Amino acid sequence: MVRVTSATIENGQLNVWIDGELDGCAATISETRMIGRASTAHAIGAAIYPVSAHTPMRYAPELPADTRAGDLLAIPCIGVTVLRDVQSRSWHPERLSDDRIDHERDNFPPTIC
User: What integer pLDDT is reported at residue 4 of this predicted model?
Assistant: First the structure.
């Protein structure tokens, strides 16, 4: 499961940026589905951009045209995937607790497939 960080529509294609990495798993992008929110918008072809610079853009056949930041996407992976293989290597300051004191417990990994 990953969270959409940004989404735009250009030339009839939905471009979706996610907060997960896909380079450490065998993601089945063609089976990507939006979860947690009902949408009545028509479906259009989508390009998925993972957070990792090492992972190329991938095409999902269709996602709702009203996909937006904060939406959750379920991207199934083939086989067994170990957390250390897909956990993001980047830190996100917004994931720190409100007290702004760096504690080990404040470092939350992004969602992953």
Answer: 93
